[in-house]
Amino acid sequence: MSDLREKYLTAIAGAEDEAALEALRVQAVGKKGEISLRMRELGKMSPEERQEAGPRLNALKDEINSALAARKAALADAALDERLRGEWLDVTLPGRPRRAGTIHPVSQVTEEVTAIFADMGFAVAEGPQVESDWYNFDALNIPSHHPARAEMDTFYMHRAEGDDRPPHVLRTHTSPVQIRAMQAQGAPIRVIAPGRVYRADYDQTHTPMFHQVEGLAIDRDISMANLKWVLEEFVKAFFEVDHVDLRFRASHFPFTEPSAEVDIRCSWEGGTLKVGEGDDWLEILGSGMVHPKVLEAGHIDPTEWQGFAFGMGIDRIAMLKYGIPDLRAFFDSDLRWLRHYGFAALDVPTLHGGLSR
């Protein structure tokens, strides 16, 4: 057996790749290998011969397998060394600076608005963006002939021919969330409803998808005076000024009665908006006392409860506060724009720490 041992150990030591090594393994210890064939001959030997030859063959097989494993490991190490030499990297070179991501102005202003109204006791309510036309229109006292229900203004979901289910729309405001909140919580209630809304419009100050926040407060003795105080406190906190003048102009919204557009006193010196001073007025939101039919749709008795509601565009007030000239840029995903107008990820807006940079 010494001849087999010398033959294969020498061949294994000289194998230059794993393919040659595998061929030697099959030739030596495979099912039809030389050592395997000799082990099969043990059955033809006498007990004395088998007792002598068996241990020697097993020892030889183990030695060959160990040599194969050692040579395979050596070839793998050599291949790795060669690869490392070819892929060498100087880790002492200076690394590329990491650019931190920024918070989008819409997200930042949403957090600012939420922080302000949370301080006044308003919770955040959410609802689906695809709504039935009942929640989006009927429950809000918007009649069937109202222009807002036309397909030129509202995105209706496709319905198969013959489908008699109520139509669904991409919500045109977050007011349906108020109906759902009233139905779920009853009165008294104080909530704001921020979120995406959709309308068929596109220009410098309008996009098909934009963001709104609406507020609702229902109690037994709420009046327009409470509404005025809430809006004054919000404007002062949001624009970070000590004094504001609000002007309420009579208007009409189907879901409030009486209804009012709200303007703030401001000036435009050098193209920069300054709130609380000057001789100009700027419309920022719509508001009013909740219509009794809307309360009924929310399962609230209008003879016992009353309240106010308001709504404003998050994108619009973000443009005003941070001097952003074009609404369409909000949705262009331009990294240069985001780096310029974005906010640091860890600068969480709070009233005590400051809302903005």
Describe this structure in words.
This protein has 357 residues and is α+β, with helices and mostly antiparallel strands. It folds into 2 domains: 2-86; 105-344, Bira Bifunctional Protein, Domain 2 (BirA Bifunctional Protein, domain 2, 2-Layer Sandwich), CATH 3.30.930. 39% of the residues lie in helices and 22% in strands. The protein is built from 11 helices and 12 strands. Strands 2, 5, 6, 7, 8, 9, 10 and 11 form an 8-stranded mixed beta sheet that branches. Strand 7 (246-253) and strand 8 (256-269) form a beta hairpin. Helix 1 (2-14) runs parallel beside helix 4 and helix 2 (18-29) runs antiparallel to helix 4. The protein is elongated and about 115 Å long. The termini are far apart. The mean pLDDT is 86.
Search tags:
alpha+beta; BirA Bifunctional Protein, domain 2; 2 domains; eight-stranded mixed beta sheet; two-stranded antiparallel ribbon; 11 helices; elongated
Break the fold down into its secondary structure elements and pairings:
Blueprint: H1 2-14, H2 18-29, H3 34-40, H4 47-86, E1 102-103, H5 105-119, E2 123-124, E3 130-132, H6 133-136, E4 168-170, H7 175-185, E5 189-198, E6 209-219, H8 224-239, E7 246-253, E8 256-269, E9 272-275, E10 280-290, H9 292-297, E11 306-313, H10 314-322, H11 335-341, E12 343-344
Parallel strand pairs: 2-5
Antiparallel strand pairs: 1-12, 3-4, 5-6, 6-11, 7-8, 8-9, 8-10, 10-11
Helix pairs in contact: 1-4, 2-4, 3-4, 5-10
